[in-house]
């Protein structure tokens, strides 16, 4: 009956908290020195930051009061630093290149760290004023997000039960 159905309903509520803080030092110089084809440019960055994520599980969900839901308790902090540079170099009047490199390092509070360099090289070729051809090669590094890195044990969704009451509401006469 609808009254019985309503007695089974509840609200699964959690309150998560997170922050990300970064400090960057940027340096740019579009006129580092001259080549016959033009000015060589430079950009550099130093970065330091930290992150925090905390997601407490709903005590009712963790105790199994909600069916077909999920609960997870997790949280953690990590710090990171990075250094990067980029050069723009005009090779000929019609050809230029950009070269960049970056190193990122992450340290999880409580153990575990990872760091990796990445780089990119690109070329721009302009044989006509109305035509620009580009090519590049780059590598990438992605640190796992905070939830993936710090989630604790919990339950997950299960979709193996038919809701016969809801089926009757949507399609009366079905079984």
TrEMBL record:
Residues 17-153 form the TonB-dependent receptor-like beta-barrel domain. Gene3D superfamilies: TonB-dependent receptor, beta-barrel domain. GO terms for cellular component: cell outer membrane. The keyword Transit peptide does not apply. Keywords: Cell outer membrane, Membrane, Receptor. InterPro entries: Beta-barrel_TonB, Beta-barrel_TonB_sf. Pfam families: TonB_dep_Rec_b-barrel (PF00593). It is found in: Cell outer membrane. The keyword Membrane applies. Coiled coil: none annotated. Its main location: membrane. This is TonB-dependent outer membrane receptor. It comes from mine drainage metagenome.
């Amino acid at each position: 009956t609808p009254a019985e159905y309503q007695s089974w309903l509840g609200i699964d509520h959690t309150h998560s908290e997170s922050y990300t803080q970064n400090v960057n030092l940027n340096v740019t110089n579009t006129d580092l020195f001259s080549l016959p084809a033009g000015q060589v440019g430079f950009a550099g960055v130093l970065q330091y930051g930290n992150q925090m994520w905390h997601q407490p599980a709903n005590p009712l969900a963790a105790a199994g009061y909600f069916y077909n839901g999920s609960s997870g308790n997790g949280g953690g902090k990590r710090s990171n630093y990075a250094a990067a540079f980029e050069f723009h170099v005009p090779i000929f009047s019609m050809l230029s290149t950009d070269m960049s490199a970056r190193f990122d390092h992450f340290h999880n509070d409580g153990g575990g760290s990872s760091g990796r360099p990445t780089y990119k090289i690109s070329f721009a070729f302009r044989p006509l004023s109305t035509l620009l051809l580009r090519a590049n090669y780059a590598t990438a590094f992605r640190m796992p997000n905070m939830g993936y890195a710090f989630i604790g044990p919990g339950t997950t969704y299960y979709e193996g039960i038919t809701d016969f009451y809801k089926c009757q509401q949507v399609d009366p006469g079905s079984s």
